[in-house]
Amino acid sequence: MSLHKRLETDVLIIGTGLAAISVALHLPSGMNALLVSKGTRFETNSVRAQGGIASAYAEIDHRGHFEDTCQAAKGRINRSVVDYVTRSGTEAMEFLLRQGVLFDQSEGEFLLGREGAHRLPRIYHCGGDETGKRIMETLMPQVPFPILEQTHITELIQVNGQVVGAVGYSEGEPIEIVARATILATGGVGGLFAASTNDPLIQGDGIALAFEAGATIRDLGYIQHHPTVLVHAGRSEGLITEALRGAGATLVTKNGDRIMADHPMQDLAARDEVAKRIHEVRKREPVYLDTSNVVDRTKRFPTFVEKCEKLNINPDLVEIAPGIHFLMGGIETDLSGRTQVEGLYAVGETASIGLHGRNRLASNSLLECVVMGKAVAEQLKLLPERSVKQIKRRPGTLRSVTDRLSQVIGVEMDVRQIQESLDALKDWTLDESGQEAEENRLRHVTACLLLEGARSRLTGEDESVEQVAVTATTGGIFNRGYRTVGHHE
Ligand SMILES: Cc1cc2nc3c(=O)[nH]c(=O)nc-3n(C[C@H](O)[C@H](O)[C@H](O)COP(=O)(O)OP(=O)(O)OC[C@H]3O[C@@H](n4cnc5c(N)ncnc54)[C@H](O)[C@@H]3O)c2cc1C
């Protein structure tokens, strides 16, 4: 493959979601950066965020937020990380307000939402349920760096073990971007699944890229299902914010029986518990969200109401089902966003810092993006100089994995089916090179890692995916030439 275009920058930020933008807006002056997005700059999960951002800004201290996060997580957290992020909630809100984000207020007081497993209303929102869109529309124009849209990064460049940039395709043309630091802000994995709340472009690419570069990946078995994805004519039609339940909506059967009535937190129990209950009931009959008693529904939840109007359904009672929503695990980093590979950082949903455990507390991810974006930018002040030699690349492989993943990874999982899928993916062979082949290679690597994560979660193995992957390599999963990074000279 001949490389037409070569760019150089101090910091390459792969992504244009809130995590990426937070890094960009916190970088020290004098430092150059370049941001890239797979689609347009606004095709991100950040834009889709509805409920809001969790912060103890109005509380005496962050202790309640810290405890609720730990409680919802059900283990697998680093308490000092939870302390750091929840403590930083006040600073994050001050930053967003300073940048001009207009959070909903009434008579000079912020209107706070309440969501699952929060014992207090502490969710700051904009435009009712348009929080992500409004935050991103406010912050994006303030980014002082170029943004390359329609640019799909397919491989990291490594020299002597260090990541020194990335290659991919920009508007279909090969591109090489050399950088002193490379930041993966590529979001979660939902786009790999059929029933998901995510933007379809968000497919876990960062995880495959980091894995291929030798970074540790962990906890991929922990994927959060959002309890309420709107179902219409048998199809998933996107997320319905949990804040509706915070405002009084309830989960019911056709007869009006409340399915969460016996839970101490009722309809606002932790997401995994609500999703599980819905899944169980749906084996017998459909489950609905009754929003008929939500006060000011149209004003507070315009996204929901407009969606119902578009589908020509009555918003009072809508059928729902759980859908793939958020990846708790990801690329292991420290509290400065550093991975174990020199020159490579990860931030936002693609990273795993030990905040979300087995179950993310609602609205903690926008907070993580803002807080950790700043932490990464601060770390970059210490960036060493680096020069890069000519780079040679090898092309990759493969085809779509969505159907297979969607069939076996869900609220309920079966270890035998997971193993069968893994075995089937092992047998897939190399295709020709080119952009499509390389995109498919990334999907394939992420899919194998997700299946490995699910298998180790189900079998109770407590090892990181890096360890699992080493086993897998000897077993043949990654021995077909997929691990192309490391072959650069
Ligand atoms: C419907 C919905 C509602 C949500 N509501 C809330 C909420 O109310 N509160 C909350 O805290 N969280 C919410 N979340 C979760 C939250 O929105 C996300 O976790 C968060 O926005 C992730 O931000 P990010 O910057 O890490 O990634 P994203 O915003 O997903 O951005 C990822 C970026 O990476 C780019 N990218 C990916 N792969 C490549 C590649 N190979 N090459 C180049 N670019 C690439 C994409 O183009 C994109 O720009 C919600 C999520 C969804 C889907």
Overview in brief:
Helices cover 33% and strands 20% of the residues.
Class from secondary-structure proportions: alpha/beta
Approximate helicity band: 25-40%
Oligomer: single chain
Runs in which pLDDT lies below 50 for 5 or more consecutive residues are 390-399, 465-489
Question: What separation lies between the terminal Cα atoms?
Answer: 15 Å
Would you kindly provide a written description of the structure presented here, covering whatever features stand out?
Residues 10-366 form the FAD-dependent oxidoreductase 2 FAD-binding domain. It is an enzyme of class 1 (oxidoreductase). By secondary structure, the chain is α/β, with parallel strands linked by helices. Helix content is 33%, strand content 20%. The protein contains 16 helices and 20 strands. It has helices at 18-26, 45-48, 63-73, 79-87, 89-98, 131-139, 205-213, 243-246, 271-282, 297-300, 302-311, 364-380, 402-408, 415-426, 435-458, 465-475, and strands spanning 5-14, 33-36, 53-54, 105-106, 109-110, 112-113, 123-124, 147-148, 151-159, 162-170, 173-184, 217-218, 223-232, 235-239, 250-252, 287-290, 317-327, 330-332, 344-346, 351-352. The strands form 5 sheets. Strands 1, 2, 8, 9, 10, 11 and 19 form a 7-stranded mixed β-sheet that branches. β13 (223-232) and β14 (235-239) form a beta hairpin. α3 (63-73) packs across α4 (79-87) and α14 (415-426) runs antiparallel to α15. The longest helix is centred in the last third of the chain and has 24 residues, at 435-458. It is globular and about 65 Å long. The protein binds flavin-adenine dinucleotide (FAD). The site of flavin-adenine dinucleotide (FAD) has 44 residues, from α1, α2, α6, β9 and α12.
